TrEMBL record:
Superkingdom of the source species: Bacteria
Name of the protein: Class I SAM-dependent methyltransferase
InterPro entries for the chain: SAM-dependent_MTases_sf
Amino acid sequence: MPPRQRPVGTITRGTTNPNRLRRCDRWIAGPQGWRLRRSPTPPVVVDLGYGASPVTAVELHERLRPVRADVQVVGIEIDPERVAAGRALEHEGLTFRLGGFEVPLDDGARPTVVRAFNVLRQYAEHEVPAAWQRVQERLAPDGLLVDGTCDEIGRRSAWVAVEATGPVSLTISLRLRGLERPSDVAERLPKALIHRNVPGEPVHAFLTDLDRAWARSAAQASWGARQRFLAAAADVARSWPLLDGPSRWRVGELTVAWPAVAPASPAAPVPAAAP
């Protein structure tokens, strides 16, 4: 028997809360639901680095079952104690195992979706491409890696969708009630973009234009924040390649093609310490 592979990655802080990832789950079950339905075998969806509580994996299974009743959700954690806590909640269609970015699954199974939320946030920006590639190599045909970040209770979320060929989109999802400006999501951008929200970078230009559209749509606020966001998104769609429409904008969600917001230059690696 070959030696057991050591999990690839670094243990996260583990902070999590019920419903924290509901916005991303809604997107996976909605616009991305075709990936699950198209799978010729029961699709495998991985909750990678789910944290100190297995609640997000449990919720993910509950939210995807209406899309594909035979979906198999696997919670993967690098911390054995967290895996043990998850296994106490296992049932048909939901399992937990030890692992990391190598995404270990039984019988060489390949995941249809890997959701990695608040995992790469603690890594350096230049480490992100290698982590993405590690997961990309494991994806099923039509598979997707979702690399995202959100606040503690899921009011502001952002994620990059990464297919086997590379990143394809950035999605931001906001709780519209009480929203001051859309760029408030900037502090929750995924690691690949969070340090790029500066003048001269495409993602900064995108958020700036979205804020300006939000300001121009202020008159719509008398009809509610939803109508104001719909108007702002329609405004931005005139100059940015949005990949969704009003049905998603209504819930505070907006997806833009990755090439339009990708970093203007590669991340600089951290210099090695002097000997």
